[in-house]
């Protein structure tokens, strides 16, 4: 440990008055945390080694919570001991100077990015910007029932602000609690009270999780301030009693070399454990067992070891502190706030297979480069300038000095050139061509639609069936997109790898999600009588209950077509449960998926294996193979089908039936 250049040690009446030291190792720990978040959100880039695809990298946010809780509480306790009170307005003002400039700059940048490169993101920005400004993004997302883990359209550019909202809510309320608590209790008693808060927050998460059905969406539990406060409180509890920078000044022999060594070893083991949790936990709901561990106290498996690391690097002469205080780590950690802010919209504008054609190393590297460059600009021009009171002067110099202005302009041009070179834009369709489907699905989710989605998937008033003959309703997406151009038709007059369609025959039930809803007018042609049982966002684990609810009028179906997996993965048990629900009567056709998501290969492998296991009854429609190399099949989101894609899927299913 070293004292910062701003630290002072001044004897006053026998009492040491000192500022908290700067701990560069904590910036190093921030660098690790933000690194895992970036790797986690960048897993859609393919051909990356497993070490660069941490399935639990979202736990980097939990590390941030622990670090923030420790530092903020340490500052509050130090101020109370030094002056006898805590100036709450001054504390809030310091937090505002630290956080708001970068946030406001980011919001302006996100709006500009959306306007220039992703106009389909503007609607969500408009609906979420007030929540971002008021630091209530997490509650806004809960009230809107928007999933953090699933999305077929472009995610909001502001969705990641949920974690910053939780921290800011903590910054507003926690100083009041500390001020009142330290007037009534000792620091040790406050630590125990804070640990009670950790337990209460963990119990709240556990109880809320128990209300989620197996394989259900846990977003509302994940976003809540009360259920996620445990990480912040873990760091806060330690800050009341662990302040080795005071001990070394008052008791120079407090930390002997052997003691420091053992603490370093404990910190290193804890750091290894923290890193391990980033790879063991997952956001894949198919691995529900890991979710049960995570939401029943498992977040503490990251937060408590993170606290051990913090405790180790805070002591004098810590070798672990020296390692984490390595200058590149510190540089990244100091900019971690800006990196976190900017990485999300950058990643959502460069989605492999959707916005850019290259889905490998080039995308990965360019994403990181753009993110770090934007974060550095934010750190230099906004964060540091405002904190040091030189924002106006520095901005004036950059504008008035022609050489510096040309230098920044040159850097911007080089960056744009590199992006253009390595990230060629994929032009599937213009955004307005998807407007019909977007309106349809949004209306369905809001309960306002009167067309296909309601008729096809909502329960009838007289029963539980969620089905309707699709040839009795309109096809809003086809009508909104319009007939394909002559060139588009010519390009799909029958891919060479697609068999000639057979004759229509029999009654067919199609079980699907929003892709099936959009393609319903073409799917209606695959049999004599076709019923589509489809719902926006449907997952594999939802299907058996809907199969069980099928109206008895459709129990004599000749074929059941299952096209699921666009929204999430599956496992062997889910496949087998669905087959058992269908029973021994109809033949079952399973269509693989073509979706630019990390779970695509897992879903398709599970479908192929399942068809092999149930080969006496199951048939495979390899939509992924047919759609490969045909971007004209897809709308601009790369998931839903335009008219050529709908017809190609129809023909594939007919050919499988006729085989």
Walk me through the structure.
This protein has helices spanning 24-41, 60-83, 88-117, 122-133, 137-143, 162-184, 187-210, 219-223, 225-241, 244-250, 257-280, 288-298, 300-313, 319-324, 327-334, 336-349, 361-387, 391-400, 402-422, 435-446, 452-457, 476-481, 486-491, 514-518, 520-523, 543-548, 572-582, 600-613, 623-627, 643-658, and strands spanning 9-12, 15-18, 468-469, 507-512, 529-534, 559-563, 587-591, 618-621. It has 2 domains: 23-357, no CATH class; 431-658, SGNH hydrolase (Rossmann fold). Helix 7 packs antiparallel against helix 9 and helix 17 (361-387) packs antiparallel against helix 19. Helix content is 60%, strand content 5%. The strands form 2 sheets. It has a 6-stranded mixed beta sheet, with helices on both faces. It has a two-stranded antiparallel sheet with strand order 1-2. Strand 7, helix 28 and strand 8 (618-621) form a beta-alpha-beta unit. It has 659 residues and is mostly helical. The protein has 30 helices and 8 strands. The chain is elongated. Residues 1-17 and 423-503 have low confidence and may be disordered.
